[in-house]
From TrEMBL:
The keyword Repeat is annotated on this UniProt entry: yes
InterPro entries linked to this entry: Ank_Repeat/CDKN_Inhibitor, Ankyrin_rpt, Ankyrin_rpt-contain_sf
Descriptive protein name: Ankyrin repeat domain-containing protein
Taxonomic path: Bacteria, Pseudomonadati, Bacteroidota, Flavobacteriia, Flavobacteriales
Entry keyword set: ANK repeat, Repeat
ANK repeats: 34-66, 67-99, 100-132
Length: 157
């Protein structure tokens, strides 16, 4: 049952996911073999309709996968700005940290996601947060050599 549920999520088959949730509401926060929740999986596959369905059925918005990444972190490195906006509007924590201390803003800077970085900053992302190596989002932007992100995130002061 869980494998079918997770496959329907990957495919973005919201109608089937809704039926399965109606029959088994506890599926909404189950975990797959890789440690991902249904919401994390839906967002990783850019399935916004399915992600909204899961949230409307009680999915925990800041639940983490086996690496400590939230759904919002995943879309920050994948670059899915529409889902990022939706998750933030629904209350996702923009300053959550994973097991390596990385934040959504650090991911956005590392993977050159300018639009998402702007969105995170508009919603209170902490520019001073450091990962386990002591690097901020600004440091990651400098390492990647992305002038727009370097300018957006500040200076060395």
């Amino acid at each position: 049952m869980n494998d079918k549920f997770f496959n329907e999520i990957r495919l973005g088959n919201s109608a089937e996911v809704a039926l399965m949730l109606k029959e088994n509401p506890e599926l909404v926060n189950t975990i797959d073999q890789r440690g991902s929740t249904p919401l994390i999986l839906a967002t990783y596959y850019d399935q916004i309709e399915t992600a909204e369905l899961l949230l409307n059925n009680g999915a925990k918005i800041d639940a983490v996968d086996a690496s400590g990444n939230t759904a919002l972190m995943g879309v920050c490195f994948k670059g899915f700005s529409g889902i990022a906006k939706m998750l933030i509007e629904k209350g996702a924590n923009v300053n959550e940290r994973n097991s390596m201390g990385a934040t959504c803003l650090i991911y956005a800077a590392t993977f050159n996601r300018l639009e998402i970085a702007k969105l995170l900053l508009e919603n209170g992302a902490d520019t001073t947060a450091k990962d386990s190596r002591g690097n901020t989002a600004f440091d990651h932007a400098k390492m990647q050599g992305v002038p727009e992100l370097i300018s957006l995130l500040g200076t060395d002061d």
